[in-house]
Amino acid sequence: MNFKTPIATLLLVNFWILGIYEYFFNPRVFVIEYEDAPKQPWALTEPWKNYLSTLELKIKHQNIVNDNNYCEYVMNYQQDHLITLDQDGLPIKQQRIIFSDFNNNTFPKKILNRISTLSMTEHFTRMNPERHPYEKLKPNINLFFHHEPLWHEFHEIGKHFLCQGQRYNHIPGNENINYKDTTINTFRNYTKHYVGRMQCFNPWMVMPYSLDLSDENQCKEFFNRLNDDKDREGVNWVVKKSRYSHNGQGIQLIDSKTAHLALKEYDYGNKCNEAAGFLAQKYIKYPFLINGKKFDFRAYMFIASMDPLIILYHDGFARITLDDYNSTSGDRSKHLTNLDVAQGFLESKNVTGKEKEEALIDQGWSYQHLEEYLIENNLVKKGWMDSYLRASIKRAMFHIVRMNLSKLLKHPGVFEIMGFDFILDQNLHLWFLEANLTPCITEKNEMKKELNTKFIKDVVDLEYALLYGADFNKIFSRTNFQWIYDGRKKGMDRYHDLITKDCL
Predict the structure, then answer these.
(1) Per the record, what is one GO cellular component (predicted)?
(2) Is 503 strand, coil or helix?
């Protein structure tokens, strides 16, 4: 069984083994970048040096012609054209000039078109360069809202775009949160900060036990564990591509049959070099079910600013499988909640267009709908959603940003939207699964359409509030965002009761 050949997947939880030797005897000291640490100019930091080393300026990206004098043109334009602000201190629609490389028929682009003035609409991701003109960026752009998370690697910050008076929706270094293998190893390193304080942060109580198969020691550990589990009934492990996979692609469910195949294919771990590029994760074998079906959560994290650091949380939605869960089955439709998997399942059933539409509506629940279901079935008490679920999600998001702070560029003009996926087990314990830099923002049903429309509008409003000095708290108060961290405040106030002083 080759991991590079799709099979079927998902896992159970084991948190006791983190490596005693690694914990107590490894001489390396993991350094946290504390929020109160002295600040260094962003252009002198390691993330900036790393960013410059990734630039690929010779590539004709989206037919944008890089101009080394662009920021000078922007400055001159801003001096000659004053911005008209509304009563809230935000620019009027005609002067919200946004360049977005989302395809023109996508839902995010439609929302942006309603609330702003779009610029350079002939330039977008996966465009055919032969059918579109080559152009320089317009100097009147004040916000870049791109689908491509690494757009900045083809256009240099501070020279070709993101000049003073502009904001951009991706943070150089963001891949450290997105790449699954990097996340696993960062979790392991971050845990060294909490030796003796596991009540503050235990990685394998936040995320199912995970192993990076590109690391020889971790890979060998996986095959040793797999050998122990090879005759255990049902799916016990899930193997995923470490990077560049979405919508359930590259996921393999490892049950007894596939475990035997994998052990043979990789010679019980003696061919670990052939498993590079994948990770293994204990499968949550006994998830909490809704009417016999498995589900997970999508929640949004919004880093509104890196300087000052402002991190916000936003409800997403619950995604429910369309097929009944069966822990002993390798059928992906019983395990994976992704939209593509759901659509594939419906196509296999030869349902009508109307039946398919109705099924996809039922596949996504709002958090409010989920809470009502749990309360009506006496599974939780009123207030559980805020006191446990949202609080646990926000705390996980805080730690994940914090453990990556030293790798993220603290440029004052960047922000980031991320989708975080979580699952509940049968004991209603929350588990973090993965983060996505380009969360799918769709209008598949009215719930998602309403949620995502307001979400994008509020993100844009908050960014313009920061750009033009409007009352951020006033704009924030009319959104559905919740606080995770506010770097404008001092002391413990900035943490909004998510973390106690003894757990810093």
Answers:
(1) ciliary basal body
(2) helix
